[in-house]
Amino acid sequence: MGAEREFIRTLTLPYESIKTLYQGDSEVRLYRNELIGQHQVGKRYDTLGLESTVAVNEGQLLKQITHDQVVPVLDVVIPSGYQAPLAPVELIMPFYERGSLADAFLGGERFSVGEAIAMIVGALLGLAEIHECYGVLHRDLKSPNLFLTREGRLLIGDLGVSITMDGKGGGEALPSPRLYCPPETFTTHRADRRSDLFQMGIVLHELSSGPLPYDDPAYGTEKMAERLGAGRPAVRPKHMRPAPWVPSGLRRVISKATQTDPAKRYSSAKDMGSAISAVRYVDWSAVIEEPDRHRWEGVSVRRPDRRFAVDAKRGRKGWAMIGQQHITSWRRITERPDAIVPDLESSQAAAFFQSMVDIATRH
Question: Is the pTM of this model over 0.85?
Answer without folding.
Answer: yes
